[in-house]
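dumping these here so i dont lose them again. two proteins, back to back, each one seq then structure tokens. dont judge the mess
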Amino acid sequence: MLAWLLWRLERIERIHQAARRLIGEYGDEAGAEARRRARDANSAEAAQDWKRVAAVIARRTTKRAALDAATAPTAVELDQVAEPTSIASDPPKAFRIQFFCATPDHSERNLTEREIEAQDTSAAIVAAANTEWPPRTIGLRILDREGREVFARQKASRG
């Protein structure tokens, strides 16, 4: 299960990186480029990934300016708007990310620790996946507010 989750997180990160790259290169036409790449893909899996990239781009680059201009309220409508209401949601929870390295006696030593706030364990894992690991780090642990380990990952050995 853990390997599957890590694979999914890495796949999501690759899709978001491809979306950022296309947005930077093609601007407003990035979605069209992603859809073209999906049509031209060599495999069904690659086509599905490009469709996901197109979906991410669509969420990030909607033509808000055109929509805002078309749906902008008039001064009369602004006077009739009630006070905004807040949407109740669970407050973020505190998590700690511990980065560790190996010692000569093959034990682990904590290099550094970062505190983060996230809605749940899944969001904390995503935040950890997007965090840059310090040098010499071989793994990380995510601890909840009570200090219980909720997730751990170690780099694959390269030997």
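---- next one ----
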Amino acid sequence: MALWAGAIIGLSFIATPVKFQAPHLALPVALEVGRYTFGLFSNVELGFLIATVIAAVFAPPRRIAFLMLGAVAVLLLLERWWLLPELDARVSQILAGGAVTLTSSHWIYAVFDICKAALLIGGAISSYTSRH
């Protein structure tokens, strides 16, 4: 859970904002990189989810950690099947000459990632403290 949280923090809150501050990186290139990065990361997160569920079968977490993992799973699936397609369509619009504006989908995605990271850190702490 902690590794997954670190990956979210590293990608969503460090690498992505920095990418848009690079003075020589054209916006279309940054958007394409973001599109592919977040698409791939969604698959990585699905792998983290599967691995965490398998681990929970062999070392059942405390109920609170299990509930936190369930909430993370719901957020991940909403991102994957609702927000990412919506954001991908938005990138296509911008690349086709549409106006560059942040939509509510961007903010929702960021809030979901904040929630996922916080829940995963909480679940990791809960799992660790229940074993020690």
